[in-house]
Amino acid sequence: MILRFLFPFCLISLVLISCQKETNDPVDMSIPEAPEEEIVLENPLTADGILLGKMLFYDKSLSRDNTQSCASCHRQSNAFSDPNQFSMGINGDQSLRHSMPIFNMSYSTNGFFWDGRANLLRHQAVIPIQDPLEMDADLDEVMQRINADTLYDLPILNAFDTSHISEVTLGLALEQFMLSIESKNSKYDQYLAGEVSLTTTELQGRDIYFNTLNCTDCHKGFNFDDPSGRYLNNGLDSNDEFTDLGRALVTGKISDQAKFKIPSLRNVGITAPYMHDGRFENLDQVIEHYMTGIKSSSTLANNFDVEQMNLNTDERKALIDFLHTLTDEQMISNPAYFSPF
Length: 341
Ligand code: HEC
Ligand code: HEC
What we know:
Layout: H1 2-23, H2 38-42, H3 47-57, H4 70-73, H5 121-124, H6 127-130, H7 139-148, H8 153-160, H9 167-180, H10 187-192, H11 200-212, E1 231-232, H12 248-251, E2 260-261, H13 283-293, H14 313-324, H15 329-332
Antiparallel strand pairs: 1-2
Helix pairs in contact: 3-8, 3-9, 11-14
Residues 57, 62, 68, 70, 72-74, 87, 89, 95, 97, 99-100, 102, 108, 112-114, 121, 124-125, 128-129, 134-135, 174, 178 line the site of one heme C.
């Protein structure tokens, strides 16, 4: 009796398994090894440097009126991004773009911010302190405050063998802390290491991501970003709708208008809303955009083939389930990144 039920089931499973092997053999399912982290060599991470950077990152005295720290707009629970579409600066003004997540920063080799206007993280770090839309402080005054605060005496001495923080060491310390934030233990990493299995839909989504759609033209490699650091236009707006000129603000080239940094898709399940202006509330809207919303313009990347982008409801759900496997629960609860205060 049992056999009569089991036999057809086994047969179907066998056929399914063998079909999968023959037709869906993974093309590029794995993620390559981490590249050499060159930037780290110029500013070697030390426990003392990271600690000092962490204190600065969580310190509200970096803003003019002592109300805001870096962590106000870069929250650990959101992979150090901001759940708000635009972040509120100390003057009640909103940022012009969605805050970006901070992790695996050493993979970012071609500039920081959505338009890449800062070359090095240590230079990037002092910009928000002075940005009138963000912390709106005078850098000299901030350094005076830190140098006057006895809490910092030992950490500054330990990290840089000096008694006073300078613009350079301030940048270096923040850079060290940000470089120390690693995200390498998502469910997908654990799956690749053979530690957990993925559900059937997650596996289906992985297959769609790597083999059916063109996502890996741009979001690929260990960090699911662009290892060559390109800035591209993924079809959010047509020419007459360009409001943020993106990369062109840095290069001055018309051919760079509305191009933005290709973001990492690691932790994308917890970094909503999406795109440089946070226009999409959830991943379903993002997929909808790639399926039916691509707008043509003079700078649109030539990767978008509408035919390829057809997914039914189940497939869309599977793709989103797969994207959620890139969430690193360990990172967002890692005490090493908690506020030291
Ligand atoms: C008021 C909110 C706010 C505060 C405060 C803030 N940031 Fe940001 N951060 C943003 C926004 C918005 C962006 C994207 C800006 C852009 O692309 O023009 C960003 C981008 C970044 C990036 C770029 C990431 C990448 O992948 O290119 C880094 C790094 C960063 N911030 C670090 C910091 C540090 C360090 C501090 C504190 C000194 C800080 N932020 C304070 C809102 C904020
Ligand atoms: C031609 C390159 C390209 C392709 C192909 C591409 N993307 Fe993107 N993607 C980008 C760029 C560039 C951005 C940022 C655009 C912006 O903010 O203006 C982006 C943004 C995103 C975001 C938002 C991330 C965030 O932090 O805001 C998600 C999610 C995303 N893409 C997923 C996908 C998926 C899934 C696919 C496959 C269907 C895909 N992308 C295909 C270039 C690409």
